[in-house]
Design a protein that fits this description.
Layout (H helix, E strand, L loop, with lengths): L1 E12 L2 E13 L4 E6 L5 H8 L7 E6 L2 E2 L5 H11 E4 L11 H11 L4 H14 L15 H14 L4 E5 L7 H14 L4 E5 L3 H4 L5 E6 L2 E7 L19 H14 L1 H35 L12 E6 L7 H8 L4 E5 L3 H4 L2 E5 L2 E9 L9 E2 L7 E7 L16 E9 L2 E18 L8 E5 L1 H15 L1 E6 L2 E3 L3 E3 L7 E5 L15 E7 L4 E12 L4 H5 L4 H4 L3 E3 L1 H8 L5 E6 L5 H10 L2 E5 L2 H6 L1 H35 L2 H9 L4 H31 L6 H7 L4 H26 L4 H8 L1
Parallel strand pairs: 3-8, 3-9, 6-7, 7-8, 14-19, 16-18, 22-26, 23-25
Antiparallel strand pairs: 1-2, 1-4, 4-5, 9-10, 11-27, 11-28, 12-27, 13-14, 13-17, 15-18, 16-19, 17-18, 20-21, 20-24, 23-26, 24-25
Bound molecules: adenosine-5'-diphosphate and magnesium ion.
Length: 737
């Protein structure tokens, strides 16, 4: 069966060569019961490990069924071990967290047997080693003798032709030792048993041959009984472990050690929480930036523009303006300077013009076409002379009615018309002006009317409905009384017992100029059938899900006077003197160009890039931290996985089983995290900041985080398995014991 010719084993350790054994020649037949003795350090264990294919050899030749093995690869030895070898160790190498039954079952599952096929066989062998009473007991609770009987059962049930036992009685008292050897002899008849022991008397009556080793050499080889007829060679027939059993073992491993389970669980939990919250706070700061309006502010960056406020942030009076106008370098004042920085569309059928609404009194020079306005809804258009409509096609716009549109907030315009204006005159702008936008010169009263639309367009609106931030649209309606709101009947499902009447709605409006707050009560709900009666509107379908509030309430949010104006100077070279003069009038005055660098788009973009980089770095750092922690936790599992390997699990098996374990753990942990966030959102825990942050996470982010988590756990199991299989099984095992 096995033949060794002058085989030697050396250990290379940091430049020092140690000898395991030298020039061993042996022949081993099926049916033999070989006992190896010798002093400690004489090379017995090394010899057994080489015979078992757990360790490599350096010199000579070992034959298996007449075949040379010196050219064998790791895979060949793995195959050999699965077909021929079952090991029994001095320290049992059982899985302590498994029961007796599970330990024996494991070796069969790893070798491709089906769970229900092996039950009888396992119970039978448990009976043979006398452990029926303990079949569902965890191995950690057994005595040494009982443990070794489990190990014997596990070795025998694999049904290989060779059983290799290294001092199986070394940790046992003499009574259990005798017991164990008897059982081994009984269940292992017709196999080749190679066993190391110090106690010859105990095994003498069973041994067919006794080999004595000293200093790495065989010094005695005495045949006690001749085994002539080697029975026909029998190989253990095995398959690969089934996917189902991989899952079974993986899931069993997830929970079998509580402390390990909880530790991994906590790591997964905090890593995903940290990444999600970091991402959310990044999103929130982006949003807040929009709140504060920086990204929308100051579109008109003319060199001759000065921004002025009163120090106490109150509105300007006519007297204030008169005083400013008296300054010699002041060309003109734009009182409502929000119009300088906000552009809006003017629409007529297919034609769309885009520009700033400005006071007709600030129009300079003569008009080139048409006439000056005579009524409030007439306007002058200032347009570049190279514009398509400025030339031969001016009749498509001159004396035509255009409409302003309704704002949807945050710089978006709906298709709904608000105010009709007739273009009665056109003034050409110079073509070299970098600004392509038009200028719409209208009467003061039109500006006042449009102001709330402009404010709205600048503003960020947050509606807290049922104490949660929701994205609904507000709509003014005269049928709603002040302080109340009317909402879609379907909203009631968001409330406990569908009780929606008298529940609060909180509205927050913010922009660069002001913050406004409005707290309302839900007074009624609308359905398709009562919609018209309640709102006086006909269009239920286009208005669904809107929140209707009183028109005055609505205007209180947006109809705010400006406390900031702009002064334009005649001579830019003297702008600093003018600023001094304005400050002497008790105003704060700043060149608009000063905001260009500090709050301009480039600056914002740099900030954004930095934040994205910080977020990515954080994710990577967290990734490695979690990786390291999990590696440390898994290190304690080295023995387990090495044992699996000794029992016949391949690299792929180990990797997949670990994959499943980490997958189950991380998924569970993630579910708990999601549930926690859900509870926080529903005010079951009072952590406002996190509830607020969670508003910035969508399904996409939750799914992405889950994918990241799965990738992390797969990378870890891959690396771990690779490391485990880099060395021989016995090296990995020794390293950790
Ligand atoms: P035994 O089982 O007979 O007590 P071993 O086979 O364990 O002896 O050891 C034989 C020799 O090989 C000893 O001198 C021991 O120091 C050496 N040896 C065993 N394992 C290693 C190892 N991993 N690295 C270096 N030397 C080793
Ligand atoms: Mg030994």
């Amino acid at each position: 069966m096995l033949k060794l010719e002058n085989v030697s084993k050396f250990y290379y350790n940091k430049g020092i060569i140690a000898t395991g054994f030298t020039k061993v020649s042996l022949e081993l037949k099926i049916g033999e019961f070989i006992v190896i003795t010798g002093e400690s350090g004489s090379g017995k264990s090394t010899l057994l490990n080489v015979i078992s294919g757990l360790d490599s050899y350096e010199e000579g030749e070992m034959y298996i069924n007449g075949k040379e093995t010196s050219h064998y690869t790791k895979k060949d030895f793995e195959d050999y071990r699965r077909k021929y070898i079952a090991n029994i160790f001095q320290n049992f190498n059982l899985i302590n967290s498994y029961t007796v039954y599970q330990n024996i079952e494991l070796v069969l599952l790893l070798n491709g047997y089906k769970k229900h096929d092996v039950k009888k066989k396992i119970l039978n062998i448990i009976d043979q080693v006398g452990l029926t009473k303990f079949k569902n007991t965890k191995v950690s609770k057994l005595s040494g003798g009982q443990k070794q009987r489990v190990a014997i059962a596990r070795a025998v049930i694999k049904d290989t032709p060779i059983i290799v036992a290294d001092e199986p009685t070394g940790n046992l008292d003499s009574e259990s030792a005798k017991d164990v050897i008897e059982i081994l002899k009984k269940v292992a008849k017709d196999k080749l048993v190679v066993m190391v022991t110090h106690n010859i008397e105990q095994v003498e009556k069973y041994a067919t041959r006794i080999i004595k080793m000293n200093d790495g050499r065989i010094i005695e080889n005495i045949e006690l009984k001749k085994v002539t007829n080697e029975p026909a060679k029998q190989e253990n027939i095995y398959n690969n472990i089934s996917i189902f059993n991989k899952y079974r073992i993986g899931i069993r491993n997830t929970f079998n050690i509580k402390s390990k389970f909880l530790l991994l669980f906590a790591v997964f939990f905090f890593i995903s929480a940290a990444i999600l919250l970091e991402y959310a706070s990044f999103q929130m700061s982006e949003e807040e930036k929009v709140d504060s309006g920086y990204s929308l502010a100051f579109r008109d960056l003319s060199e001759n523009r000065i921004l002025i406020n009163k120090k106490d942030k109150t509105n300007f009076s006519t007297e204030d303006y008169e005083k400013i106008k008296e300054l010699s370098n002041v060309d003109y004042i734009v009182e409502d300077d929000i119009f300088l920085d906000s552009q809006m569309p003017l629409q007529r059928d297919e034609i769309s013009l885009y520009g700033n609404m400005l006071d007709i009194n600030n129009l300079k020079g003569n008009i080139d076409l048409g006439r000056m306005p005579q009524s409030e809804n007439e306007m002058i258009l200032k347009i570049r002379s190279d514009n398509y409509y400025a030339n031969s096609n001016y009749d498509e716009i001159l004396n035509k009615t255009f409409s302003t549109l309704k704002s949807q907030g945050l710089n978006a315009w709906s298709g709904e018309k608000v105010k009709d204006l007739i273009i009665v005159g056109i003034q050409y702008a110079e073509n070299n002006e970098s600004n392509y936008a038009c200028k719409f010169y209208v009467s003061n009263s039109v500006l006042a009317e449009l102001r709330s639309e402009v404010n709205k367009n600048y503003s960020n609106v947050k509606i807290f409905f049922n104490n949660k931030y929701q994205q609904y649209t507000l709509e003014p309606n005269d049928k709603v009384t002040r302080g109340n709101a009317i909402v879609d009947d379907e909203f009631k499902y968001q409330f406990k017992n569908y009780k929606i009447i008298n529940k609060p709605i909180n509205i927050y409006v913010s922009n660069i100029y002001y913050n406004a707050e409005l707290n309302l009560n839900i007074s009624n709900t609308y359905t398709k059938s009562n919609f018209k009666r309640i709102t006086s509107l006909n269009t239920y379908d286009t208005n669904r899900y809107k929140i209707f509030i009183n028109t005055d309430d609505y205007n209180s949010l947006y109809n705010k006077p400006s406390y900031q104006s702009s002064v334009f100077v005649k001579d830019v070279n003297e702008i600093n003197q003018t600023i001094n003069q304005l400050e002497n009038l008790g105003l704060t005055a700043k060149k608009v160009t000063d905001f260009k660098v500090e709050q301009g788009e480039i600056y914002q973009r740099i900030i954004k890039v930095i934040k994205v980089v910080v977020t990515i770095v954080l994710v990577i750092v967290l990734f490695f931290i979690s990786y390291l922690i999990i590696r440390i936790i898994l290190k304690s599992r080295n023995i387990y996985y090495t044992t699996l390997r000794m029992l016949g699990a391949t690299y792929k098996n180990v990797r997949r089983i670990l994959d499943i374990e980490l997958f189950v753990n991380s998924s569970l942990s993630y579910c708990v995290l999601l549930f926690t966030i859900y509870m926080i959102r529903n005010n079951m825990f009072n952590i406002e900041y996190i509830a607020k942050l969670s508003n910035f996470l969508t399904l996409k982010e939750y799914v992405l985080m889950y994918v990241i988590l799965i990738i992390i756990s797969r990378l870890i199991s891959k690396k771990f398995a690779k490391k485990l299989f880099r060395k021989t099984a016995i090296d990995t095992y020794n390293e950790e014991v």
